[in-house]
TrEMBL record:
Pfam families xrefs: Glycos_transf_2
GO CC annotations, alphabetized: plasma membrane
Compositionally biased residues, Polar residues: 322-332
Name of the protein in its database record: Glycosyltransferase family 2 protein
Sequence intervals crossing the membrane: 242-264, 276-297
GO molecular function: glycosyltransferase activity
Domain Glycosyltransferase 2-like: 12-175
Length: 346
């Protein structure tokens, strides 16, 4: 394992927020305390808030944080691009040291930061929090999350740790590797696993939201799960092929049996109800297969347009957080330079 270089003794807490005006005032004091703990560990600690096009008072509250604490940096996107893009925008701005990722709802405890830093100092590149308990969530959401992580783990060749979200610390070389992955459909949990390097889990108990409501309803979670599976596995396409072959074999066998009965015993061919059942079944199988193909084709279409991942409306660096260069629109990046992610328009 590698050791932390003297130039990398900088830590940035990255938080993507969308309409979190209720939760942020309760979270910021905990963040300030976590920054003090990191500074006590000999690190140059800062926090970077990314406003993902919020429509409430989130940006005004964040500006108040920055006015009262010089360790706060702010990045505002031109509109809501989604959590994955907002998180990418924040990580693109971390040019020195490690990044510690937190959710804006306060469910992941920033008080565990010293444990993450300790593992980083031992040489781990991806120190992620693994949930052993999820407070404030219904049984259905817990059950579906439990099943999703095990499903994608079995379908994908990319290691995706079970019951693990974005709550993690990434080393400088993990961040540099991550900046090279510029796909438009971003499933960050899979991308974290794809870059590899030395990884370790820290078990923790996830708390309930400090305030407000979750932006992820079951429809959003379903689309998120579909995004993850199609981004890191072609197993659904292979399954569609196998189902098609099995259906064809069953249909061929059944058709042969009908013909044989008619020739040997003169039995009449099954009538309209049987025919309609078979047609509807085969039509349903074909539509499901076409839908799977469409999901993958749609992702190819989005990638072919090569649009920037996001646009920056406002960037307010804090002391110690490098502002970097203004990215262009090519969507490329370099592991040892500034990540090119979008266009700064304000």
């Amino acid at each position: 394992m590698h050791r932390i270089a003297p130039d990398d003794r900088c830590l940035t807490i990255v938080i993507a927020a969308f309409n979190e005006a209720e939760a942020l005032p309760a979270l910021q004091p905990r963040i300030a305390k976590a920054l003090s703990l990191a500074e006590a560990e000999g690190l140059e600690a800062r926090v970077l808030y990314v406003d993902d096009g919020s429509r409430d008072a989130t940006w005004d509250i964040l500006r108040g944080f920055a006015a009262n604490d010089p360790r706060v940096a702010l990045l505002r996107l031109s509109r809501n691009f989604g959590k994955e893009a907002a998180l990418t925008a924040g990580l693109d701005r971390v040019e020195r040291g490690a990044a510690f990722i937190l959710d804006a709802d306060g469910q992941d405890p920033p008080e565990l930061l010293p444990q993450f830093v300790e593992k980083w100092r031992e040489g781990f590149d991806d120190v992620h929090g693994t949930r052993v308990e999820r407070e404030g969530e219904g049984w259905l959401k817990r059950a579906t999350a439990h099943g999703f992580y095990r499903l994608i783990g079995s379908l994908s060749k990319t290691p995706v740790p079970r019951d693990t979200g974005d709550f993690r610390l990434l080393s400088p070389r993990a961040l540099a590797a991550l900046r090279q992955l510029r796909e438009r459909h971003r499933f960050m949990k899979g991308l974290f696993g794809w870059v590899g390097f030395n990884q370790v889990a820290i078990p923790y108990q996830r708390e309930a939201r400090v305030a407000g409501r979750s932006k992820f309803n079951f429809w959003a979670l379903w689309n998120f799960a579909l995004e993850g599976i199609t981004s890191f596995s072609t197993a659904p396409l292979r399954m569609a092929t196998y189902i098609g072959i099995a259906t064809a074999l069953v249909a061929f066998g059944y058709g042969s049996w009908i013909i044989l009965k008619a020739l040997l015993w003169g039995d009449p061919v099954a009538g309209w109800p049987t025919m309609m059942s078979v047609i509807l079944f085969l039509g349903g199988v074909q539509l499901v297969a076409l839908g799977l193909i469409g999901e993958y084709l749609g992702r190819l279409y989005e990638e072919s347009k090569q649009r920037p991942l996001y646009f920056v409306d406002s960037w307010r660096p804090a002391s110690g957080v490098s502002s970097g260069q203004v990215p262009d629109s090519t969507g490329a990046s370099d592991a040892h330079g500034t990540a090119v992610a979008g266009i700064e328009v304000g």
